Amino acid sequence: MTSIPQTQTAWVATTRGPPSKVLQVNQDYPVPTPTKSGDVLVKIHAAALNPAGWKIMTIAPNFVWERPYIPEVDVSGVVVDANESQFSNGDQVVGLISTAVQRSTHQGALSQYVFLPASQLVLKPSNQSFSSAAGIPTVGQTALQALRTTPKTIFVNGGSTSVGIYTIQIAKSMGLRVVASASGRNEAFVRGLGADEFIDYTTEPPHVYLTRNSPTPLFSLVLDAAALIDPSLYRHSEGFIDKSGMFISVGPWPFGRGWKAGLLGTMKYLWAVLQPGWAGGVKRSWKMITVTRRQADLQKLCEMVEAGTVRPVTDSTYDFNDVLDAYNQLMGGHVVGKVVVNVIPERGGQEGEGG
Ligand SMILES: NC(=O)c1ccc[n+]([C@@H]2O[C@H](COP(=O)([O-])OP(=O)(O)OC[C@H]3O[C@@H](n4cnc5c(N)ncnc54)[C@H](OP(=O)(O)O)[C@@H]3O)[C@@H](O)[C@H]2O)c1
C-alpha cells in the first residue's frame, strides 16, 4: 500500500475575494483522515476548474462558505485507502466532491489528497487520461440532468461552454435535433460536436435570429448554458419554444459589471421569469437547474465516454504551481472545454500512473 503522508500541498482560499488575491499555497496542510468506513482517500492526479469555483471564492460571504477552504470539486486520481468501500487501493477514479462534504470538511480538488464518500466516485474511463477525465463530473452531470426533460428538439445557448459541449453530444446520442449558438470562431467546433444548425451570437442575438427563423417543430427545450442575465432569450421564447416546452437556465450570472448593475440585472431577470402569463408574462415554463451529484449519472457519463459516444474536451492544462494562471484562463470567459490543473504532472501526455 502507498504510504500516506501526514501533510500535503494544497491551495487554500483564506478570505473572500478573487483567486489572485485570496488563494495561497500551503505546503503543510493536513492530509484528511477518513472518519467513517466507506469514505475513500484518493490521491489526486488532476482537478478541473469550474466557474462556480471562482464565483464562490469571490462572492460567498464567510458565514455561507467558511474560510479557509480548498476550492474546486472535480477530481480524478487513485484510491489509496479504499476503507471498506466497493473500491480497491490502486483503482483509478473520477469524482465530484459534494457541496456538503466541501463545506463540512473544507476539502477541495486543488490538493494532493481528498477523502470522499464512495458514492461520489466511479472508475475512470480507461480510454481517458486523468487530466481529461477530471473535467467530466460537474458539467457532464449538469447536461445529462437537463436532458432528463426528454426533449425532441433543443436549442443550446452557449454550445462551446463546457455544459454545452456535453449537452450537444448527449442530445445527439439521444437522436435529438440540436441548434446551438457560439461565437463564429467556434462554429466548426460546435458543428463537429453534432449541432445541426449554428447561430453566431456575435452577429445577431439568438432570440432575434430564432424569432425570424422560427424552427419547425418548435423547440421542446432551450438550455441557456451561457448563464445569461439578459432575459431577452426567455422573453421572446414563445416564438420558438413549443407550448409544452421548457426554458432551463444553468443559473443567470449577474456580476461582472458592478454590484448596482448586477442587482438591477437580477431584478429584471426575476421579473421576466416570475411575471405570470395572465399578467403579460411569458407563457413558457422556466426553471433553473443546479447539478445533483448522482453516482449513477456519473457512471452513465463515464460509460458514454468509454464507448466514445461523448468526448471530453480540454481547453488547457496547468501545472499544480500555476493554479492562478489556470483561473485567469477560465475567468477570461472564452475557454472551449475544461481548464485542468495536473496535480501530478503528465508524463508524455499521460499523467503518472499508480498511487
Ligand atoms: N447550474 C449548475 O449546476 C451549473 C453547473 C455547471 C456550470 N454552471 C454554470 O454554467 C455556466 C457555463 O459553465 P461552463 O463551465 O460550461 O462555462 P465555460 O466552459 O467557462 O464557458 C466558456 C464559453 O462560454 C461561451 N460564451 C460566453 N458568452 C456567451 C454567450 N453570450 N453566448 C454563447 N456562448 C457564450 C464562450 O464562447 P465564445 O468565446 O465564443 O464567446 C466560451 O466558449 C457558468 O455560468 C457556470 O457557473 C452551472
The global form is: globular
Q: Overall mean pLDDT score?
A: 95
Structural class determined from secondary elements: alpha/beta
**Bound ligands, each once:** NADP nicotinamide-adenine-dinucleotide phosphate
> Beta-sheet strand percentage?
25-35%
CATH class of the largest domain: Alpha Beta
> Strand count, sense and closure of the main sheet?
7 strands, mixed
CATH H-level homologous superfamily name of the largest domain: Medium-chain alcohol dehydrogenases, catalytic domain
Rg, rounded, reads 21 Å
Q: Identify low-pLDDT runs.
A: 350-355
Number of strands: 17
Query: Could you estimate the helical fraction of the residues in percent?
Result: 25-40%
* N- and C-termini, Cα separation: 9 Å
Architecture of the largest domain, CATH level 2? Alpha-Beta Complex
Q: Count of DSSP helices?
A: 12
Give the SSE order as H and E letters: EHEEHEEHEEHHEHEHEHEHEHEHEHEEE
Would you tell me which CATH topology of the largest domain applies?
Quinone Oxidoreductase, Chain A, domain 1
Q: What number of domains?
A: 2
Task: Describe what you observe in this structure.
The structure is a single chain. By secondary structure, the chain is α/β, with parallel strands linked by helices. Helices cover 29% and strands 27% of the residues. Strands 3, 4, 5, 6, 7, 14 and 15 form a 7-stranded mixed β-sheet that branches. Strand 8, helix 6 and strand 9 (177-182) form a beta-alpha-beta unit. Helix 5 (137-146) packs across helix 6 (162-173). The protein binds NADP nicotinamide-adenine-dinucleotide phosphate. The site of NADP nicotinamide-adenine-dinucleotide phosphate (NAP) has 31 residues, from helix 2, helix 5, helix 6 and strand 9. This is Enoyl reductase (ER) domain-containing protein. It comes from Pisolithus microcarpus 441. Pfam families: ADH_N, ADH_zinc_N_2.
